[in-house]
Amino acid sequence: AASNFQAEYKNGITPLNPGENLNLRPLCLEDYDRGYLQLLGQLTSVGDVTREQFEDRFNKMKACEDTYYVTVIEDTTSNQVIGSATLVKEQKFIHHCTARARVEDVIVSDQYRGKQLGKVLVDVVAALGRELGCYKVSLECKDHNVKFYTIFGFEASQDQNYMQRRF
Ligand code: 16G
């Protein structure tokens, strides 16, 4: 996967070594107690999610083989999840029964901004999308984040629009 990384890093940081006492790994059930949902609350509304609801959702995702790749960074000194990004792989019939991927729910805790951790997270999940054989990886983001995502080779589409219908 290393050869698929796209970003440049300062201060000896690499995607596989994101910093002292920081551990990049898949989400696990115990992250409920490590502030994972509070972290997501810095991105958007999460609501009151009980441990049972979290475990049920986690297990459902896990049961979807080769689909949800929730990646987190844990600060091992505070035992808190301080960053996360998710890759979702979607199976397709098109392009010879290939798959596409989406980068979702990218968030770094406010106290950890400026440490290249967002870069690490997106670099890792985008490289993973490629490794998993997806023919493309896409995301939606706010205007002010467009420049950030170009680092990894994302570009605004000339002829495709992001549309949504909210419920
Ligand atoms: C951003 C996120 C998306 C997330 C959404 C939540 C990235 C690249 N994009 O668009 O994944 O689900 O925000 O906002 O992280 P919402 O609650 O308004 O849908």
From TrEMBL:
The keyword Acyltransferase applies. Keywords: Acyltransferase, Transferase. InterPro entries: Acyl_CoA_acyltransferase (IPR016181), GNAT_dom (IPR000182), GNPNAT1-like (IPR039143). It is an enzyme of class 2 (transferase). GO terms for molecular function: glucosamine 6-phosphate N-acetyltransferase activity. Pathway: Nucleotide-sugar biosynthesis; UDP-N-acetyl-alpha-D-glucosamine biosynthesis; N-acetyl-alpha-D-glucosamine 1-phosphate from alpha-D-glucosamine 6-phosphate (route I): step 1/2. It catalyses: D-glucosamine 6-phosphate + acetyl-CoA = N-acetyl-D-glucosamine 6-phosphate + CoA + H(+). Its EC number is 2.3.1.4. Pfam families: Acetyltransf_1. One of its GO terms (biological process) is UDP-N-acetylglucosamine biosynthetic process. CDD domains: NAT_SF. The keyword Glycoprotein does not apply. PROSITE patterns: GNAT. Residues 22-167 form the N-acetyltransferase domain. Belongs to the acetyltransferase family. GNA1 subfamily. This is Glucosamine 6-phosphate N-acetyltransferase. It comes from Elysia marginata. The lineage of its organism: Eukaryota, Metazoa, Spiralia, Lophotrochozoa, Mollusca.
